[in-house]
Design a protein that fits this description.
The chain has one domain. The longest helix is centred in the middle third of the chain and has 23 residues. 0% of the residues are buried. It starts with a helix and ends in a 10-residue tail after the last strand. The chain is elongated, with a radius of gyration of 16 Å. Strand 1 and strand 2 form a beta hairpin. Strands 1-2 form a two-stranded antiparallel sheet. The protein is of the alpha+beta class and 64 residues long. Helix content is 55%, strand content 16%.
Length: 64
Amino acid sequence: MKQLNQKIKEDVRDLPLKVKAERALKEAVAEALAEHKRQGNPIVVWRNGKVVRIPPEEIIVPES
């Protein structure tokens, strides 16, 4: 298992910076959504030209 983790880390180092940045951003968004859901806080999004409040029970946390 240790070798597998080491291989994954090496593979990530070889990725272009924009790919690493996109992965980091997606992970940060997933963590923020999960934290809002856990704490019972709604999120606010822009949908079809309007501000929409999403209650915590409707927040979908993407798998990262």
